[in-house]
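quick q for whoever's on today - can somebody do inverse folding on this one?? i tried earlier but teh output was garbage lol. tokens:
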């Protein structure tokens, strides 16, 4: 194997990898719509330039019934009417936690989330964003 080859995290640290999968399953069990989870995973993957994850999450979203039109406009979600206020609140939260800009006030974003989601759902969304960012970093480092 060359020094520049991608890492096989699933083989190198299988217990950690399986724990990540278990955490992902726990987030999915929190009761949020799978369509929302797909959008958030895809948007974070776009921001993180994880081509593998973008391809995977786009396919999964389409397989679960998401439209090409909404997926095509996900990068400009703020400027189109394709997304509900609840989806926009979750997308704003996803971007804030993915990009970690220094001067974002998270308080209004938390308030907007609370307007659309329960405390449990908001925590599950936060965990989802953390997980997809983790998966993106594993994906980028492996490909």
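ok took a stab at it. sequence:
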């Amino acid at each position: 194997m060359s020094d520049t080859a991608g890492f096989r995290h699933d083989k190198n640290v299988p217990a950690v990898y399986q724990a990540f999968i278990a955490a992902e399953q726990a987030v999915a069990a929190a009761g949020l719509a799978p369509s929302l989870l797909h959008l958030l995973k895809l948007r974070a993957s776009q921001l993180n330039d994880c081509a593998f994850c973008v391809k995977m999450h786009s396919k999964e979203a389409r397989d679960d019934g998401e439209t090409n039109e909404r997926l095509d406009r996900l990068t400009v979600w703020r400027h189109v009417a394709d997304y509900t206020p609840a989806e926009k609140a979750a997308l704003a939260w996803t971007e804030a936690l993915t990009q970690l800009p220094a001067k974002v006030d998270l308080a209004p974003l938390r308030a907007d989330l609370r307007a659309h989601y329960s405390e449990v759902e908001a925590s599950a969304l936060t965990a989802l964003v953390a997980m997809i960012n983790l998966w993106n970093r594993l994906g980028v480092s492996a490909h």
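fwiw The CA atoms of residues 46 and 91 lie 12 Å apart. also DSSP finds eight helices and no strands in the chain. so keep that in mind when u check it
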